[in-house]
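Much of what follows relies on a compact textual record of a protein's fold. A record is reproduced here so that you can trace the correspondence yourselves:
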Amino acid sequence: MQLMVIGLNHKTAPVDVRERFSIPKEALRKGLANLAEYSGINEAVVLSTCNRSEMYAVVDDVETDADALKQFLFDLTGNEEDIDEYLFTFVDEECIRHLFRVASSLDSLVLGEGQILSQVKAAYAMAREAGTTSTVLNTLFHRAIATGKRVRTETRIACNSVSVSYAAVELARKELGSLEGRKALIFGAGKMAKLTAQHLISHGVQKIYVANRHIEKARELAAEIDGEAIPFEGALKQAVDVDVIVTSTGAPHYVVKSWETRQLMTKRKGRPLFFIDIAVPRDVEPEAGEIKGVTLYNIDALESVVDDHVRARRAEAKGAARIVEEEVRSIEEKFRYLSFRPLMAHLSDRAERIRCREVRRAASKLPDLTEGEWRQVNQMTRMIVRKLLRMPMMKLNASAGTEEQQFYMDAMRALFKLDTIGETTGIGKEQDRYRYAQQ
């Protein structure tokens, strides 16, 4: 079996493609529940954020099962358009490296941002709850999360980092010259909306309106920022006097239509309006940006702002990359060991059964031994078995990932008769489970 990731992200696909392949949570839950329907996919974790849709999987064979993994992506998104030019695929070591870089925020639009680590945790938790992870992905994602934490602890990559919400507000400030005394409307009341509101306030925005489909959440956020909650439906009609509109909802469709925007601009009598759409799928209909007096930016436009701040963290990124490489090498060693653990365990079990049988036979011939003396016999025989097996075990483990690997595994099975019925249940299957780590 092999480990692979297939997907698209902000580096390979523009926002209009990413939004068509974003994965709603409910669809993801149902898809993971039906993973067994996809031949060749044995384990899977799906990471879906505003900037990426990535599918990590343990498959029987990359050459034959990549199409099944791609079909899984299509079924989760309900879209089957040809997107090969936007997709990337990493296998085995490169897959491990990619995940570790993602968890460490080295692959993020905003270098050093902290949200991605919690998103990786959430993706893994959902897959584990659905029962689509086992030894390989459990091991891999535990280490990825630990790597992300280590990077944030041992480097300053997160210091003065630019979040997406900060970049959005910075873009508005550059466009408008100043945000002092301005008014803003925010669609959404989640974490991103809250951070955006805080940044707007720190830049001097006078008044913030909050619109959310659940008015209670809008009121909660408005109370925190001393703003005003307004009904979601018809919110744009109340935006006659605002200067900036930021949208950050999880809606699967446009929440701001071009015809509504056109009506609004008529009431504003030419007063300019600045939209920042940081949602994926997008919240604002693209045609709204063509209306006179409207400036519309989506999440891809934030890259120019991010570039201005990323230079200060590039040195820290080098240190983070070194940590990632250390962790990649470390987990490869662990996988090499895991690949032989089933065979070693069966050999140890067989040796222990033989030892116990011979001790029992001896017991019938040595009835006068005390309990303490039997403890000494047991300890002595255990040490004999351990020392006899130590060298074969070391030789087997040392061959992991080399041309001699299969030779030693076959030799071990033949010499110790580990292919006897009842002795090897699951050996081949478990060994194959980790084969990708040695390729």
